[in-house]
Amino acid sequence: MSETVEESGVPVQDPDKRADLISAIGEARLTELLALVPAEIQKVIGAIEKVQALGAPPPPEVLEALRREAHGLKGVAVNYGLLRLSFTASAVQDYCRTLGDIDLLRRKLQECSGELAVLLDRS
């Protein structure tokens, strides 16, 4: 799991994907769409907090709900070229199989949210 979460050197957003998206929909529309992503991150953080509140091992249905939320977030991240967020969402999905360090994943999602805020401020 650590190599999935440890993405040092990976840009927050793939510059080629960003350029393609700007070409296709324009920078203003891309910024509008990216502004919706923090809410999606919060959904996954909420699902993680639910898992944490229930303790280990979490019930299968709670893990499945977390996996679904993470999968949706990963799809959004891939579509917008948000590389670090994609890696982190994938690691959350892996957690559902391995029961790794869930607190680390929550912190990484919060970092991704902060990185996205910086990205939006530059837009």
Folded structure, characterized:
There is one protein chain. With 123 residues, the protein is mostly helical. The chain is built from 7 helices and no strands. Helix content is 80%, strand content 0%. The protein is elongated, with a radius of gyration of 15 Å. The N terminus is likely disordered.
Lay out the secondary structure.
Elements lengths: L1 H4 L9 H11 L1 H8 L2 H18 L5 H20 L3 H16 L3 H21 L1
What is the CATH domain class? Mainly Alpha
Helix-strand string: HHHHHHH
Tally of contiguous helical segments: 7
Q: What composes the largest sheet?
A: none
Quaternary: single chain
Mean pLDDT: 89
CATH architecture: Up-down Bundle
Report the CATH topology name: Four Helix Bundle (Hemerythrin (Met), subunit A)
Beta strand %:
under 5%
Question: Pairing-aware structural class of the strands and helices?
Answer: mainly alpha
Shape descriptor reads elongated
Number of domains: 1
Name of the CATH superfamily? HPT domain
- Measured as a percent range, the helix fraction is over 70%
